[in-house]
Amino acid sequence: MKFVIQRVSEASVTVNQQVTGKIGKGFLVLIGVCDTDTKEIADKMIRKMLGLRIFEDANGKTNLALSDVQGSLLLVSQFTLYADCRKGNRPSFTGAGAPDLANELYEYMIQKCRAINDHVETGIFGADMKVQLLNDGPFTIILDSEDL
Fold this sequence. Notes:
Layout (H helix, E strand, L loop, with lengths): L1 E14 L2 E6 L2 E7 L6 H13 L3 E2 L5 E3 L7 E6 L21 H18 L3 E3 L7 E15 L4
């Protein structure tokens, strides 16, 4: 499982010219799932993400977590995080999880996050989404379950 976490001042997702999710200060999280991922791996990734202390405290040090700043989450599925570009110029996506598994885990993560955070917004799984964000910093973290 892969998360690309961007600390944002604001972010939104639009599908068919309709906003499906919009947040202010918080994390925009792009989520990639592979076939070996499980709910246990998702739980571990969520704990790590929510524990990241990447917001500035009163002294300007990145010392505060999402909950400390009452931040929001915008969760967006993105199978292209599993692009394999080693051969040729056209990426292969065979490493991405099967759609049924990926959607099941994506929905599971949404529910887990909503149980912890009051403001969780989402994209639409499998849709052609337009994502807008104002990256704060810029500050971007990549979490890979294989590294945890």
